[in-house]
Amino acid sequence: MLAERGVTVDASTIHRWVRKFRPEIQKRAQARHRSSRGPQWHADETYIRVGGRWRYLWRAVDQFDQLIDFRPTARRDAKAAGAFLHQARDTVRQYQPLTIITDRAHSYAKVIGGINDRLGPVDMIRHIDPSI
Q1: I want to staple 55 with a disulfide (CB 3.0 to 4.6 A). Which of 31, 60, 71, 72 is the partner?
Q2: Distance CA 97, CA 38 (A)
Q3: H or E stretch including 101?
Q4: Per-residue b or e along 70-95, where b marks 16 or more CB atoms closer than 10 Å to that residue's CB
Q5: For residue 43, what pLDDT band results from cuts at 50, 70 and 90?
Q6: Selection from 34, 42, 35 nearest residue 98 by Cα
Q7: What does the alpha-carbon distance between residue 50 and residue 12 come to, in Å, rounded to a whole number?
Q8: Could you give phi then psi for residue 40, rounded to 5 degrees?
């Protein structure tokens, strides 16, 4: 967003901002917008450079484009996807997703299937993958 406005910022600066301001942003977002989170999540990941190293930034937003959670990881595998979805579901404990729309990462299908095995047929999460 800053690049679109002509502002040049190093990725390490953004990483420091995330580490410094995430708790405050998360606290304010949960207090103000907790009841308006939607049951449909869009989850994806992107590859960014942080502190001189390439990282995957996992993120989830609801159908109202409100940020649910994000997590930078070194790998893009089922373990990282599981950790991210566990963290995101813990962030919004009372508002669990009914549907998760993902990109073409196959790791989501395995993780959501594992979550559904624990939830049972009534609370199952519907997974929408455009590649299927």
Answers
A1: 72
A2: 8
A3: strand 99-102
A4: bbbbeeeebebbbebbeebbebbeeb
A5: very high
A6: 42
A7: 5
A8: -115, 120
